[in-house]
Amino acid sequence: KAYRPSSMIDYIEGREVEVDAIWRQPLLKAQLLGVETPGIERLLTEIEQRVEEEEINIILYETISREYGFQ
Hints:
Elements: H1 6-12, H2 19-32, H3 38-68
């Protein structure tokens, strides 16, 4: 059976993704130890971009809703 990481589940279900604790901090520790983690670095970049895009979409939606009185 396929495994879905909790970060993916949180993102899909619209919950806050714990980017710092689950992704950024372990990556920083690996870098401090001199461990190369190119896959995790790419994944972290993608996660950060998607979370930022989602935050922008929420802000746009809220702004448009206020402007036009959508509920």
